[in-house]
Design goal:
By secondary structure, this protein is α+β, with helices and mostly antiparallel strands. It has a single domain, classed as Orthogonal Bundle (Helix Hairpins).
């Protein structure tokens, strides 16, 4: 168990460094594939041990807030979806609903509200 916890701490350290580089410094220290593989390994270790460390990127989304913008309430929750590489899991999740499959693009999530054709509000998730 201690070996797995040590391994988890190392993976968290690498993933958090990659997140900081990508989201705050506009640079990459590993490829998306390397990041995803490392992340998936961490998820597996967390599942095997039943432990999720407080610094784990599996429970945090995004990056450190760098400015103090005013807070704005969302009309509807802005949530993240879990990743999957399993087509059957995706079909099961969709059920009878229609969906569009596209490449994952990294970037800022934003909800823009227009009133009478004019932009009245633009709100991010804040993370």
């Amino acid at each position: 168990m201690m070996d797995k916890l040590h391994l988890m701490k190392e993976k968290i350290k690498l993933l958090n460094a990659a997140n900081k580089a990508y989201y705050q410094e506009n640079r990459e220290i590993m490829s998306n594939m390397e990041y995803d593989d490392l992340y998936d390994e961490l998820v597996k270790l967390e599942s095997e041990t039943g432990v999720t460390l407080s610094s784990s990127p599996t429970i945090h989304v995004g990056y450190e807030l760098l400015s103090n913008l005013p807070k704005e309430a969302h009309e509807r929750p802005m949530l993240s979806l879990d990743k999957t590489k399993d087509a059957d899991a995706l079909k099961s999740w969709l059920g009878q609903n229609k969906g569009i499959l596209s490449w994952k693009l990294d970037g800022l999530t934003i909800v823009m509200t227009y009133t009478d054709g004019r932009l009245t509000k633009a709100v991010t998730r804040g993370n």
